[in-house]
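FAQ: What does the model actually see?

It sees only this:
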Amino acid sequence: MEALLPVLKSHPGPAVLVCSLLFRVAHQLLQRLPVPTVVRQDAFRSWKWKNLSVSMVHSMLTGTWALTCVVIWPETLSNIHSFHTPLSYLLICVSTGYFVHDAGDIILTGHGRGSWEFLLHHAMVIWCFLYALYTQLYIAGALIALFVEVNSVTLHLRLMLKLANAQSSSIYHINKIANLFTYVMFRLGTQFYLTWYIVNNYSWMDHGGYFLVTMMMMNIMMVIYFYRLLRTDFFPRSKRYVGQNGTHNNNSKKILTFKKSEFQLCSQGAEQGKMWEERMNPGELSQQLLRSLSAAPLNFRGST
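And it is asked to produce this:
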């Protein structure tokens, strides 16, 4: 590892590209694994499943890697500006390569417009990580930022279970609790710790303003995502159907159309009833209604 470090430091750009290609290879290998039928039958779900599979590999790898580095070298937490080891530098190369791969996968498969939030997040991460790799500063800060990948494991599993329509399974409910815990502990906790460090050391930090603005943007995104997570998993306001992108699609148009049709049917029935009352005596009207009811097909279905 000591011999590899000078090569990585002298060519961080090519090192990132090599790591990106390795994640592409992982993407191809993961396609050999079995996929749920409901996912395989839909083009978007199939792409999303493959994309999340690679993301899961990255999260499990880098989250464990980052925690291990901090346990072995506790100075990482206090000397964010200049401390790093060969393993931590390599970790940032690997993670940057993943974000480059994932951004490319989203754009080249035509899902950029629907995933603009992820592209914005990836752009900020790639810029910060490349700055750390080229200047050899804030490597420890980038490593601490990867603590969020511990939560990403449960987030990715949550989305994959939704794609497989497994929201009623016991593993989904267990993961829901684990996801909430890891979100607060590793995602929000990490974001706020890095923000606190930048604010308290802003006066002497290199490009402190840029990193502070970036962290504040990240913090806003994380709080919004946390609100969405709580609202969806713990405080649902009404029954909704999960869309292919993990968000909720309400059927307001269907309901509106149904209600309108129902109103029209009621109006027509009222008008016809009024005409019958004018033309028939009560005995004839009762017989006519009985004949109509017995002939009506019982195939009524509400909106789905």
